[in-house]
Prior knowledge:
mainly alpha
Amino acid sequence: xxxxxxxxxxxxxxxxxxxxxxxxxxxxxxxxxxxxxxxxxxxxxxxxxxxxxxxxxxxxxxxxxxxxxxxxxxxxxxxxxxxxxxxxxxxxxxxxxxxxxxxxxxxxxxxxxxxxxx
Length: 118
């Protein structure tokens, strides 16, 4: 990105040692590296969002163009036949229903009444 060579890094290290000092230089370098990494991730996420928005916009334009375009009768018939084929493959014929004999309404099971004592 910045095209930094070995000589530039060496010069930055010498300036860092002189200005910051050898004791604080590793901590400062770590902090700077952390912020540079966060900046790169932020820029990368913005690029991804922009690319997604561009793709969504292109798809919306495609959808609008297809909706505005009139369909011929052959296209409609082809789509209907495709839908019919899919529908026929999904819906299988129903199995035969098994009829169970109905319960005899005249026969009632015997019940026992329990009276509570007060």
